[in-house]
């Protein structure tokens, strides 16, 4: 029977979320009052000014701690909202007493309203002279803007501003176009006029800050939050916050719509020291995410506050595996004992719970490929004899432990153990692996499927996984403006591509548990898993629930309409697209020496195969490399399929003013055309910035083994780190009652 779930707005009750809601409401009202921002009338703007005054009167929403200024930085502009085309741009101007701006115009309408402090505006009449580069100014009126008051400026009005009195100033500035969309605005050299020049927008437009202490509290308040680390994944992996998901700033357009689908989600952006995150925040605000803050001081600030720093990738999931072994005492077997028992011909089977692709790369020579979500579903066909010992392995520890405990919690009659330290230990003890193997996934018989369903249902029920029907799913879908909803299909790639529910994402169950942060970045969200067989969604859901997620399962109707093919990926655009080149055009430019080509996708893929002559660089380091090239050199970017390169090319062109192109179809199209390819790492410019370098990649055995040991020591140390971290949301289910 379907349970009834309360509808709760998870948009956030904290100060940043309440401010975001108020700003969103103001922008909606302004859009209604001024439907055409390029042709706003004085009457329309006066109506908006009253609304902006009302927003400013909510002074508690704009604390100085969120919008700081200091003696070293006495004036700062903070972006609150801005549309992608630059319209309806709202900023908070913060400053210490005495902050002033010389006479200037805006080339668009502007409204200024007070929050705190007094901003004195002096308005000038502008007169022409015989010199087209010099105009006169005559002061006409003065208006002091404080809480509850405002001024409205036309595109041609010239004014000065100065913070008077003893109180720091906070003032809302609302423009018809964003500050970087006013290329023709001018500033005068004196109050009497004279020569004037165009001037650029502020060098640094920042976004509201959140302190480490406030973020720590927010992570445990039960409301939705997405903490996104905007550094490249390899940099992130060296030191980061436990619950931060890596979403590199130059790759946001590819990932954000899937990872944080709800535009009102409370988002906190993190980087190393608080600099890169503001660039990423500008993107998100313009793309429509309305509740974006930046961690004050970044990861450095978090550590300075005495909070725990983690290293590695997919840390919450890997730490979860260590907690399972620590608290549930998951049994294990050593490589030595397993090798002896295999050689002796004991009654045992070894199942590898990694993905089929990882299994094909390397595996124990006698193992079966059985990814994590498939274990309960198919184990009855691989080990039908209850006396057979089942050994679960992976490359390290996590999926061995989780896989073994999955079978134990499901109550299968066999003895189950994990391979202690996985294939790393197998190699460390002098053994070898097989490469290129693929083993078929056996289909469960009617009898074994019925048993598997009973076992999966029992575990899911004890973990709190809740089944929902079509009506409840429809309600969840109708509430996505208030509560994030992730819908995942956890079957194999082949099953998903053969037919899945429209709009549902593919996340093979084992990987969804192993790398949850790569699929769902919003903590506190709802997760619904499509339950096609009564087993895989339930076992996956049970682990996600124990990781702290609210999980539901939905059984698709027998005659459901299905979509086929790979999961579609929606790529957003932050910049006007740069022109593209065909592979033939690119080849001609390279042969003529007129182009420099950079691969921006993946170092590991680059080392395996790349366009001859290309260099690899992570996107956020490209600007420095481009600056070193001759001004007449065309910059060409490539990625595997060209999608990322197209997005990066647009941003690089906008940031540098250089001529930048991307290759249609990317490196894959180049290879398909039979053009020259190369291998190796000789032209890698940015080290391991884009990835956590796997010890398996070392050719030197001493380096490889040292890497293995360091990795295993790191995993074993995660339990102690979690104890120092405090709240994690993990809640392991008790053992089944006898």
What does this structure look like?
The chain is α/β, with parallel strands linked by helices. Helix content is 34%, strand content 22%. The strands form eight sheets. The protein has a six-stranded mixed sheet. A six-stranded antiparallel sheet has the order 3-8-5-6-11-10, with no helix packed on it. The chain has a five-stranded parallel sheet with strand order 13-17-16-14-15. A hairpin with a 2-residue loop joins β10 and β11. α11 packs antiparallel against α14 (446-463). The chain is globular, with a radius of gyration of 29 Å. The model is unreliable at 1-7 (pLDDT under 50).
The CA-CA distance between the termini, in Å, is: 26 Å
Share of helix, binned: 25-40%
Q: What gross morphology would you assign?
A: globular
Tally of extended strands? 36
Radius of gyration: 29 Å
The percent range for strand residues is: 15-25%
What descriptors fit this protein?
alpha/beta, disordered N terminus, six-stranded mixed sheet, 25 helices, 738 residues, six-stranded antiparallel sheet, 22% strand, 36 strands
């Amino acid at each position: 029977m379907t349970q009834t779930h309360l509808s709760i707005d998870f948009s956030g009750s904290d100060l940043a979320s309440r401010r975001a809601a108020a700003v969103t409401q103001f922008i909606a009202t302004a859009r209604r009052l001024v439907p055409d921002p390029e042709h706003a009338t004085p009457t329309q703007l006066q109506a908006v000014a009253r609304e902006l005054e009302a927003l400013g009167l909510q002074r508690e929403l704009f604390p100085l701690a969120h919008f700081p200024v200091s003696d070293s930085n006495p004036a700062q502009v903070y972006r609150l909202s801005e549309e992608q085309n630059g319209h309806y741009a709202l900023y908070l101007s913060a400053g210490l007493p005495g902050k002033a701006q010389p006479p200037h115009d805006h080339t668009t309408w502007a409204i200024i309203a007070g929050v705190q402090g007094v901003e004195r505006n002096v308005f000038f009449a502008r007169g022409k002279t015989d010199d087209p580069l010099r105009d006169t100014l005559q002061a006409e009126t003065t208006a002091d803007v404080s809480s509850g008051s405002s001024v409205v400026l036309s595109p041609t009005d010239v004014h000065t501003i100065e913070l008077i009195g003893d109180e720091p100033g906070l003032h809302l500035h609302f423009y018809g176009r964003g500050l970087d969309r006013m290329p023709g605005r001018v500033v005068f050299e004196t109050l009497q006029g004279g020569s004037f020049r165009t001037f650029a927008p502020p060098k640094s437009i920042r976004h509201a800050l959140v302190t480490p202490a406030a973020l720590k509290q927010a992570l445990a308040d039960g409301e939705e939050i997405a903490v996104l680390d905007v550094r490249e994944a390899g940099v992130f992996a060296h030191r980061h916050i436990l619950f931060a998901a890596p979403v590199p700033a130059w790759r946001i357009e590819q990932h954000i719509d899937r990872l944080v689908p709800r535009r009102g989600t409370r988002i906190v952006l993190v980087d190393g020291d608080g600099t890169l995150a503001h660039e990423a925040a500008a993107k998100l605000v313009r793309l429509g995410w309305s509740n974006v803050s930046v961690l004050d001081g970044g990861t450095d600030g978090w550590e300075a506050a005495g909070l725990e720093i983690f290293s590695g990738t997919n840390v919450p999931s890997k730490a979860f595996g260590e907690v399972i072994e620590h608290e549930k005492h998951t049994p294990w077997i050593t490589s030595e004992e397993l090798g002896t028992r295999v050689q002796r011909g004991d009654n045992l089977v070894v199942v590898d719970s990694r993905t089929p692709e990882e299994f094909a790369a390397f595996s124990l020579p006698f193992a079966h490929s059985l990814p994590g979500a498939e274990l309960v579903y198919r184990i009855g066909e691989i080990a039908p004899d209850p006396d057979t010992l089942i050994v679960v392995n992976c490359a390290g520890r996590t999926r061995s432990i989780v896989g073994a405990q999955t079978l134990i919690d499901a109550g299968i009659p066999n003895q189950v153990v994990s391979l202690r330290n996985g294939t790393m230990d197998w190699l460390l003890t002098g053994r070898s692996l097989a490469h290129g193997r693929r083993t078929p996934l056996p289909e469960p018989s009617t009898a074994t499927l019925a048993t598997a369903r009973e076992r999966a249902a029992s575990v899911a029920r004890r973990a709190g996984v809740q089944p929902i029907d079509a009506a409840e799913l429809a309600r969840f879908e109708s509430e996505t403006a208030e509560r994030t909803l992730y819908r995942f299909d956890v079957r194999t790639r082949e099953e998903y591509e053969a037919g899945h529910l429209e709009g549902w994402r593919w996340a093979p169950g084992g990987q969804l548990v192993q790398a949850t942060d790569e699929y769902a970045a919003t903590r506190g969200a709802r997760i619904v898993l499509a339950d096609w067989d009564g087993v895989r969604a339930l076992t996956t859901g049970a682990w996600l629930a124990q990781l702290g997620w609210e999980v539901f399962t939905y059984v698709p109707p027998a005659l459901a309409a299905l979509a086929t093919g790979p999961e579609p990926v929606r790529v957003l655009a932050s910049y006007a697209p740069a022109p593209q080149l065909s592979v033939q055009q690119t080849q001609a430019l390279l042969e003529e020496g007129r182009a420099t080509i950079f691969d921006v996708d993946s170092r590991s893929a680059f080392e395996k195969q790349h366009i001859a002559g290309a260099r690899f660089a992570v996107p956020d380091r490209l600007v420095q490399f481009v600056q070193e090239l001759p001004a007449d050199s065309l910059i060409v970017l490539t990625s595997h399929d060209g999608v990322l390169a197209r997005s990066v090319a647009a941003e690089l062109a906008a940031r540098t003013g250089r001529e930048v192109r991307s290759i249609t179809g990317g490196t894959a199209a180049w290879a398909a055309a039979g053009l020259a390819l190369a291998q190796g790492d000789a032209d890698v410019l940015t080290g391991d910035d884009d990835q956590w370098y796997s010890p398996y990649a070392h050719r030197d055995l001493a380096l490889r083994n040292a890497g293995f040991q360091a990795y295993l020591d790191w995993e074993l140390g995660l339990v102690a780190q979690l104890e120092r971290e405090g709240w994690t949301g993990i809640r392991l289910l008790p053992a089944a009652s006898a």
